[in-house]
Amino acid sequence: xxxxxxxxxxxxxxxxxxxxxxxxxxxxxxxxxxxxxxxxxxxxxxxxxxxxxxxxxxxxxxxxxxxxxxxxxxxxxxxxxxxxxxxxxxxxxxxxxxxxxxxxxxxxxxxxxxxxxxxxxxxxxxxxxxxxxxxxxxxxxxxxxxxxxxxxxxxxxxxxxxxxxxxxxxxxxxxxxxxxxxxxxxxxxxxxxxxxxxxxxxxxxxxxxxxxxxxxxxxxxxxxxxxxxxxxxxxxxxxxxxxxxxxxxxxxxxxxxxxxxxxxxxxxxxxxxxxxxxxxxxxxxxxxxxxxxxxxxxxxxxxxxxxxxxxxxxxxxxxxxxxxxxxxxxxxxxxxxx
Length: 338
Ligand SMILES: [Mn+2]
Known about the structure:
CATH class of the largest domain: Alpha Beta
Number of strands: 12
Strand order of the largest sheet: 3-2-1-4-5-6
CATH topology of the largest domain: inorganic pyrophosphatase (n-terminal core)
Radius of gyration: 20 Å
Number of domains: 2
Number of helices: 12
Structural class: alpha/beta
CATH superfamily of the largest domain: inorganic pyrophosphatase (n-terminal core)
Strand content: 15-25%
Bound molecules: manganese (II) ion
Helix content: 25-40%
């Protein structure tokens, strides 16, 4: 693997390492971070390693080993200070599952001017020119798979604990809809087999990840599908738009909307799906885009129209304006492009 010796020497020379991942960390961001953290501790016992996330991890991931020891930058009590205290002596920063420091949201202010070298490990398109060592490969199903391959290339597979394997498996299934998309090579299944050999209980993990929703979340999903989903059969598209007051009505918690944007794609004739949600501070609309098949790139759509990007079939962005205007804007795009 390219750059692996450069990474090995950076790791052997580092005394204090910070591992971080994108804002609103998902299964892959958390899984990859905790597995990398666990591996680094085992492989480099002399090195200090800590994980810091820009904001809270969703509740359904809290069982992953180490998550509760991670620093949360936006934690009102001590998050920012704890991050800065730890960063003071940091001489290595590992950036996982994102392609530009802006994806750290407010936490980027703590890293942008930091002198420590930054290693990027990621599978999104077009990494920014902000990293000293780059592992970027869009053919990887997940950053968790990338971490697994890197650990293997470093000769460290035997250092992966069962809990690291669990974390990697979470990243693998959440980024691929349990192996239904984004899996481009048989090697991904071999990795899953290796994780099973490390003793993971895959049924139990699937249950912890997928059967852990609140009643309110299920009601909100029902409301979305029954009353909010708008379908445009001629454009082969659909969207769901949710205002803050609607979200508040269902006591919305971060992570509750996980997967919502995928539901319209289950309609045979829908190939493009969008979810628009008013941000909690009402400064913008959070945009998620999904497509099915290999002819419609929502990465390009997000770049062109929504100040964002991501993967070919899954991407996100922001709309600066009111929810109603965002809906009209999207309908206009549908008319113009599809
Ligand atoms: Mn990912």
